[in-house]
Please model this.
Amino acid sequence: MIKLYHVLVQLFVREKKDIRIEFIYAYFSDLSLDIDVKYIEKDIENLEGDTRLSVIKARVHQSDFRKILLCKYGKCCICGIDEEELLTASHIKPWVKSDNKEKVNGYNGLLLCPNHDKLFDSGFISFDNKGKILISKSLSVENQQFMNISGDIQINLSYEMKPFMTYHRKHIYKDKESL
Ligand SMILES: [Zn+2]
Model:
């Protein structure tokens, strides 16, 4: 928590922005993971006031969410690729549709490689309540093979993840009409 305080001092007080440090500190007080300050600073260098604050909030949350998923899974949930630079912390219920708590909830995420992130994010695949893969009819058998996807893929879907996956099946999965 001391480290977090220093991050906030760096970002706000040092640059004499008129956002009260007590407010910022209270907002982030439930987060204890390290934050990549340089990554955030680069994003906010030309921003001020409320815009600056909301970008910082979003970046802190994204960084936090990725760390939770890297720690939880360590590899692509579908194929096992474990090169950290290639892995995406993918929201099950999309980030834009999630509330502030859902955005950082580790149960609302899968760690995926670029191909499988794209398939999941675009709704070509989803998962049933037992974690078995669902493959949209719109993805040809040839493309399933090229993308290393088959009907026997199974992920661990915990109780807490199910509401998010239900949302994905209903709103993101391309074959949602047939559910
Ligand atoms: Zn993968």
